[in-house]
Amino acid sequence: MKQALALLTLAALPALAAGGEFFDDFSQPDLDALRASGWVLRDGTGHPGLPGTRFAPGQLGVGGGLLRLRLDTDGTPAGTLQPQLCAARKFLWGTTTARVRLRDTAQRDTIVQAFYLASPLRYDFDPEFSEVDFEYLPHGGWGAPDTRLYGVAWQTVRVQPWLSFNSAGQLRGSHDGWQILTVQVEAGRVRHYANDRLFNEAGGRNVPVQPMAISFSHWLSGGATPGAPRAHEFEVDWVLHAAGQTLSPAAMQARAAELQRQGVARRDTVPDAGLASECNI
């Protein structure tokens, strides 16, 4: 049985290139090289996070083949700096996987470690808003103290005052350490996997309808205690998107390993959609 599964995984690898693929193993030497390879590094204020917090490119780092996302805070909005970066906005149907190191921390701030794909929210309850995401809350938040990993497929939202419509699944408990997070987006269905475990499936109006940007962010939600400065960090090893293909987490992980064995640090054969990656949500 295991041998048959392995053969199926290997057989799926050539199909990845059929609709184009996007891969980055974050081997860039510095932030300038990260920008030059097409990533947008967010700089400014706005959703998500507490009003008054700021996103700053200096909160991102690369080195040793990893992308690092560092959140600095003293528990106040004015004393909080957050990281976010976004790829081009051109990803819709297909499978997207990232290998990330989620982290629990000694300080129990209500932080959110996120990997997602999103399009801009043009106005409140925008019917074409599209987003699918993973959000890890190591110390709870949003009205509950539980440690949990969310997989969310969005229909639409109003940010102020907050009112959202989505389909969410969650895995309770710590996910500290390396995780393989995979989301499959088809014309009528979205599936979220943590490693090889399916934990959210959505359809109908929760399925994306607009090209999205692959994004990573690390932000502070409500409930942090003001005090001494402290830092939180999580890392990304690689991200892979197979356009137009519904592939298993195992097939995606095998393809990323094959690209790395071939010495491919970055590949992008997904056609451009001609859309700005605003990186503001």
Question: Which terms summarize this structure?
Answer:
7-stranded antiparallel β-sheet, Jelly Rolls, globular, mainly beta, 44% strand, single chain, 3 helices, 281 residues
Blueprint (SSEs and pairs):
Blueprint: H1 2-12, E1 21-24, H2 31-36, E2 40-41, E3 54-55, E4 60-63, E5 66-73, E6 81-82, E7 84-91, E8 94-102, E9 111-118, E10 131-137, E11 148-158, E12 163-172, E13 177-185, E14 189-194, E15 197-203, E16 212-220, E17 230-243, H3 249-261, E18 266-268
Parallel strand pairs: 3-6
Antiparallel strand pairs: 1-17, 1-18, 2-7, 4-5, 5-17, 7-16, 8-13, 8-17, 9-10, 9-16, 10-11, 11-12, 13-14, 14-15
Helix pairs in contact: 1-3
Describe this structure in words.
This protein is mainly β. The chain has a single domain (18-262), classed as Jelly Rolls, CATH 2.60.120. It is 11% helix and 44% strand. Strand 13 and strand 14 (189-194) form a beta hairpin. Helix 1 crosses helix 3 (249-261). The longest helix is centred in the last third of the chain and has 13 residues, at 249-261. The relative contact order is 0.27.
